[in-house]
């Protein structure tokens, strides 16, 4: 398995860094948070509280989640609807955090994540990748930053996507809520793996973080591509989508 695992709290820069590291090596980036967001979206859209264990469990039996890579970019489909852009609101952040605390949801999604990682080299980000999803990942990084810095970054990200309504105070409330919930839940909580490298990104630029990660991995893109090519034969898409 060739996987670069990036874990850390909300707003630590994981998705930006993961995308660029994946681009550098010419491999795919799997955003596992999007999968929890998609499940949160489905619950909200059919009027189920994301904390309602029983209702969510029966929802799972009637839900098809597909992760597809189109032109190298991940898209997430729920029952064949592309929800990738609908899951990026503060409401969906909270729903994702709530639903991700349920054992039935984690089992379902972790299984899918492991299948995806077994079939192709990936940069994969989340909360529990290094500790639970892929404990044998050869490279593990834990990205963090102060809560203030993470809130500022999240706000900028929302603004860049056209959201001019959400305030800094709302983002701070969201970050604090998720920090607490994601790290205190019983199943696979947010935690740095013992063998993960800690990167505090508070005072680092994106490029500095990427340079640190690439230096640590110590492989050339061609070497990574050779691994990608050797696993290409088993590249059937477990979720039924396009790769
Ligand atoms: O990375 P994100 O902000 O898109 O994640 C949304 C929520 O999903 C996050 O608050 C916790 C949950 N999550 C998780 O529990 N495990 C993961 N591997 C990824 C996300």
Highlighted features:
Rossmann fold; disordered C terminus; alpha/beta; 5-stranded parallel sheet; 10 helices; 8 strands; binds 2'-deoxycytidine-5'-monophosphate
* Uncertain residue ranges: 236-243
Count of helical regions: 10
Can you list the ligands bound to this structure? 2'-deoxycytidine-5'-monophosphate
Radius of gyration: 17 Å
For the secondary structure, the number of strands is 8
Instruction: Report the span from N to C terminus.
Output: 18 Å
User: What strand order characterises the main sheet?
Assistant: 2-6-1-7-8
| CATH fold topology | Rossmann fold
Biggest sheet record: 5 strands, parallel
Order of helices and strands: EHEHHEEEHHEHEHHEHH
Helix fraction bin: 40-55%
Give the full name of the CATH homologous superfamily.
Answer: P-loop containing nucleotide triphosphate hydrolases
Overall morphology? globular
Please, what is the oligomeric state?
A: single chain
Name of the CATH architecture: 3-Layer(aba) Sandwich
* CATH hierarchy class name: Alpha Beta
Mean pLDDT: 93
């Amino acid at each position: 398995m060739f996987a670069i695992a990036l874990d850390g709290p909300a707003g630590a820069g994981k998705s930006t860094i993961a995308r660029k590291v994946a681009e550098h090596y010419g491999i795919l980036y799997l955003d596992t948070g999007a999968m929890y967001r998609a499940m949160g979206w489905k619950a909200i859209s059919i009027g189920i509280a994301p904390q309602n264990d029983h209702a969510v469990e029966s929802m799972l039996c009637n839900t098809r989640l597909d992760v597809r890579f189109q032109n190298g970019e991940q898209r997430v489909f729920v029952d064949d609807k592309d929800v990738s852009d609908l899951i990026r609101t503060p409401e969906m952040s909270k729903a994702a955090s709530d639903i991700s605390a349920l054992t039935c949801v984690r089992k379902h999604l972790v299984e899918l994540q492991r299948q995806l990682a077994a079939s192709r080299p990936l940069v994969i980000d989340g909360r529990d990748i290094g500790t639970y999803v892929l404990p044998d990942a050869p490279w593990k990084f834990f990205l963090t930053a102060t809560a203030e810095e993470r809130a500022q970054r999240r706000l900028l990200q929302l603004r860049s996507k056209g959201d001019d309504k959400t305030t800094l105070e709302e983002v701070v409330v969201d970050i604090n809520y998720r920090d607490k919930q994601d790290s205190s839940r019983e199943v696979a909580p947010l935690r740095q793996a013992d063998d993960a490298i800690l990167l505090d990104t508070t005072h680092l630029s994106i490029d500095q973080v990427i340079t640190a990660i690439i230096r640590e991995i110590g492989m050339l893109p061609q070497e990574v591509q050779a691994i990608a090519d050797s696993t290409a034969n088993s590249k059937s898409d477990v979720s039924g989508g396009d790769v």
